[in-house]
Design a protein that fits this description.
Helix content is about 30%, strand content about 15%. With about 475 residues, it is an alpha/beta fold. The strands form three sheets. Strands 1, 2, 7, 8, 9, 10, 11 and 17 form an eight-stranded mixed sheet that branches. A seven-stranded mixed sheet has the order 5-4-13-14-15-12-16. A hairpin with a 4-residue loop joins strand 8 and strand 9. It binds flavin-adenine dinucleotide. The site of flavin-adenine dinucleotide has 37 residues, from helix 3 and helix 16.
């Protein structure tokens, strides 16, 4: 084992983002030997084999720490879930990797994971709306009687209106200002922003609440979080269009990261307790297995942490954050078209609907061409809750029958292959953290606060990035904490 005391050289290296990539590369190429059996004791236990936990594990191994990873599911990847049995391998979890995802892009390059850039394919056909069973084309929309949007927004699809408004009103000089306490006055609801800009409740219902962008309605989502998101997205605009995904599925990324580890990844071990002890930390699993280490990195999503006993109890702000920060309700139905029905009626395969099918997107995952490989019905917010009340079989049948009703050419040509409710997933409890008004200011810093020898990561603790890149950022921060940086 390498020395874990940091030399000046390694300390300097570890302070740069470069280290994330270097760590992964070294692990990938030079450290393929796995121990013959699991160790009871290691320097660090990482809970969760998603992107954040695996990034922390790789960085710590790079610095000579012994690491074990404990994962509750029977697979690697957490909220990356690639559906390999469906044509084009659609993603049921994290899908698009943008140009500003430095850590992700470094990692896939170092691990030599082939990627597809599908930027622009999602916008290949103009948007189409299906309201009260009526199809409304992009051309018809600006003057359509159902278009009740304010004059300045009439040309936009309802889906884009909140994004345009938030871009126009963004008060943050830098998107990272969102976690500065001085931004507290901006930690208001998206509903308040709409109201301040003259929108009526009816208009807000159409543009935000029907197929929500985040949260369940404009009332329960922090505009401060949305302004951070807007600034972060804007920081990636201007360069070559980039929407990367791994050929063979994004799950390949964490799977390859896990293979690059020296230490064991223990699957099917559900963590139920984490204790800070005088000399380190202890992790207890539901099957009674106990693991001990000098440090623990906990990457569990907040809804999962509600069922984990921390000993001693976490400080009250952190405990409150765990119990109160909501996760985005999201249920997807993955569909395959037995015939390209959109060629019959010559309408777009993409549909923004007011049904339980929510927002339907044609996936274009072919390497050679941009043909539609499958369709995903994205049900968000209350629409996801509605679908979640049905059994998986009923939910899939419901989505197909609604689509056949509003789109006669699809009749008999749609097969529902898979339904994924992230709310009902006991290892996630929702899509990702969506901060309510006031919660950014009250809870954001607390969620990533170390508790003795217990360190926290996961996308919900990220400060400067969101999604997959946020997960990677948070794993890096937790690893640096342990290294004493
Ligand atoms: C539908 C969907 C679409 C998305 N789209 C995008 C996108 O386009 N771009 C983007 O950047 N991001 C996207 N994301 C977000 C991105 O996928 C996540 O932010 C990221 O994968 C989270 O990584 P993580 O390590 O923080 O958490 P996770 O991946 O959730 O890792 C936590 C791990 O802990 C494990 N675990 C849970 N409970 C226990 C327990 N009790 N004991 C042991 N292990 C446990 C889990 O199984 C999991 O492996 C999307 C997510 C979803 C769900």
């Amino acid at each position: 084992m390498q020395s874990k005391s940091l030399t000046r050289r390694t300390a300097l290296a570890a302070t740069g983002a470069v280290v994330a990539a270097t760590g992964a590369a070294t692990a990938a190429t030079g450290m393929s030997q796995k121990p013959l059996r699991a160790q009871n004791k290691s320097d660090v236990i990482v809970i969760g084999a998603g992107l954040s936990g695996l990034n922390a594990a790789l960085l710590l191994e790079e610095q000579g720490y012994t690491v074990q990873v404990i994962e509750g599911r029977d697979r690697i990847g957490g909220r990356l879930l690639s559906l390999r049995d469906i044509p084009g391998t659609p993603e049921a979890g994290g899908n698009g990797i943008g140009s500003g995802y430095g850590r992700m892009i470094d990692t896939v390059e170092r691990l030599k994971i082939p990627m597809l850039n599908s930027a622009g394919r999602a916008q290949m056909t103009p948007f189409e709306l299906y309201l009260d069973g009526e199809r409304i084309s992009a051309e018809q929309w600006p003057t359509h009687p159902k278009n009740i949007l304010p004059e300045a927004f009439k040309n936009f699809s309802p889906r884009l209106v909140p994004l345009v408004l938030l871009r126009q009103t963004n008060p943050l000089a830098s998107f990272e200002d969102w976690y500065d306490p001085k931004s507290k006055p901006h930690d208001i609801s998206v509903y308040d922003v709409f109201k301040k800009n003259g929108f009526t409740d009816e208009q807000i219902d159409l543009t935000y609440n029907l197929n929500v962008a985040y949260g369940t309605s404009a009332h329960d989502i922090s505009a401060l979080m949305m302004w951070f998101n807007d600034g972060w997205v804007a920081s990636m605009e201007g360069g070559p269009p980039t929407t990367l995904s791994a050929i063979g599925g994004n799950m390949t990324i964490p799977e390859t990261m896990a293979k690059a580890l020296i230490g064991e990844v223990h699957l099917n071990r559900t963590v139920v307790g984490v204790s800070d002890t005088s000399g380190g930390a202890e992790v207890v699993c539901g099957d009674g297995t106990v693991y001990r280490a000098d440090h623990v990195v906990c990457s569990l999503p907040l809804p999962v942490m509600r069922h984990v006993r921390f000993d001693p109890f976490l400080p009250s702000v952190q405990a409150k954050a765990i119990s109160m920060v909501p996760y985005f309700p999201m249920t997807q139905v993955h569909l395959v078209a037995t015939e390209p029905f959109w060629e019959d009626d010559e309408w777009s395969p993409d549909m923004w609907t007011d049904t339980v099918a929510g927002h339907v997107i044609g996936n274009r995952h072919n390497v050679e061409n941009s043909d539609v490989t499958s369709l995903t019905a994205w049900a968000r917010g209350f629409t996801a809750h509605k679908l979640d009340r049905a059994s998986p079989e009923e939910g899939m049948a419901w989505v197909v029958s609604e689509l056949e009703r509003i789109r006669p050419s699809a009749k008999g040509k749609l097969e529902a292959r898979y339904i994924k409710s992230w709310m009902r997933d006991p290892f996630a409890g929702g899509d990702y953290a969506v901060w309510e008004p006031g919660q950014v200011t009250e809870f954001l810093h607390a969620t990533g606060q170390a508790h003795g020898h217990i360190h926290f990561c996961g996308e919900h603790t990220a400060l400067s990035n969101r999604g997959m890149e946020g997960a990677m950022e948070s794993g890096e921060r937790a690893a640096f904490e342990i290294m004493g940086l």
